[in-house]
Every structure is written in C-alpha cells, then in structure tokens.
Amino acid sequence: MHELSICLALISQVNRIAREQNAHRVDRIVVKIGPLSGVEPDLLRSAFPLAATGTVAEKARLVIETTPVVVHCTRCSEDSEVSPNRLICPRCGDFRTHVTVGEDMVLQTLELCAASEPDSGAVAKSSQGNV
C-alpha cells in the first residue's frame, strides 16, 4: 500500500509547515487528489491515522477533495474537463491533448493552532504544494 508512504510524505510536509508557523497542533488538513494521481482516497484516509501518530497532526481531520481531469487540446487550444479514461478533446475530437489538471495530489490548506494560543480556535494557514 503506497498510500502509507504518501501519508508519511504528507505528514513530513505538514510538520515542516507547522514548525515554520510555530504551531503546536494541526486541526485540519485539506488535500486535493486528481483521478490520475495514482492515489486511492479511501486507502489514504485509512493510512492517515498511522502516519500521523505522535506528530502535531495526530488529532487532525483529513479532508480529501477530488479534482476533475482537464486537458488542453494542442489543435484547437481548448481546455476541457474530460473523463479519466477519455482524454480526447470534446470540442474538436482530436487526441493530441495533454493533462493540465487531475494528475496531482496537492496539500491545499492547513488549519493550525499557534503555540502561543494552546486551546484557542484554529488559525487558518494556506499552503499549496505537491505532496
């Protein structure tokens, strides 16, 4: 199950950001996953508690949002949402497309609790980056 290694990389990134922001706790982690990323959301969700154990994200809620697949057609220059198994331009029918959205897993948002405010409400910090 490679989702565990993906979760470990995610937790490493979350720990680094929490340290940089002087946070003692992460309350919520939002990731966006594309259908062509090779990451199974249900397996990621089940691996998360194991990867987060003993970290600032141990009690964090993992929120997984899915992204559509979007292709750019090199013939007609149209950007279109398509199904993951049909990467053909819906406008002109050409097969010369390249995927612009849908292949990544991105850390979208973290909600952190600052060390100076141990039990107050979470402070939202946004960070984007591929995991």
Characterization of this structure:
With 131 residues, this protein is an alpha+beta fold. The protein has one domain: 2-Layer Sandwich (hypothetical protein PF0899 fold), CATH 3.30.2320.50. The protein contains two helices and seven strands; from the N terminus they run H-E-H-E-E-E-E-E-E. Strand 3 (69-73) and strand 4 form a beta hairpin. The longest helix has 19 residues, at 2-20. The radius of gyration is 18 Å and the shape is elongated. The two termini are 16 Å apart.
CATH fold node name: hypothetical protein PF0899 fold
Kindly state the mean pLDDT as a whole number?
A: 91
Number of domains: 1
Low-confidence stretches: none
What is the general shape?
Answer: elongated
Gyration radius, to the nearest Å?
18 Å
What is the level 1 CATH name?
Answer: Alpha Beta
Number of strands: 7
Percent helix, as a range, is: 10-25%
Biggest beta sheet attributes: 4 strands, mixed
Order of helices and strands, N to C? HEHEEEEEE
Our measurement of the CA-to-CA distance between the termini, rounded to an integer number of angstroms, reads: 16 Å
Number of helices: 2
CATH-level-2 architecture? 2-Layer Sandwich
Q: Please state roughly what percent of the residues sit in beta strands, choosing from under 5%, 5-15%, 15-25%, 25-35%, 35-45% or over 45%.
A: 35-45%
Spatial strand arrangement across the major sheet:
2-1-6-7
Helix-strand category: alpha+beta
